[in-house]
Amino acid sequence: MRTLTLRGGVRVAVLAAEWHDAFAVVTRGRVQLELRDGAPGPVLGRDAGFWLRDTGVRALRNPGRRTARVRIVTPGSTE
Question: At the top level of its lineage, which domain of life is listed (predicted)?
């Protein structure tokens, strides 16, 4: 398990190899999904869980000013 921290306004590209079979949960703040064509996707709040596999999401973005956190769980992680 790992934690992704996104400061306000920060955008992080989603690389398929890093997110394969990963499940993510927003634990603080809000995270917006950026779709394959660059269009803004849904904004997910605290406790929202999501898969990125085969969704066409190309980035995660923090639309707010406060820091957001996302916990990422992958099969076989020991924590």
Answer: Bacteria
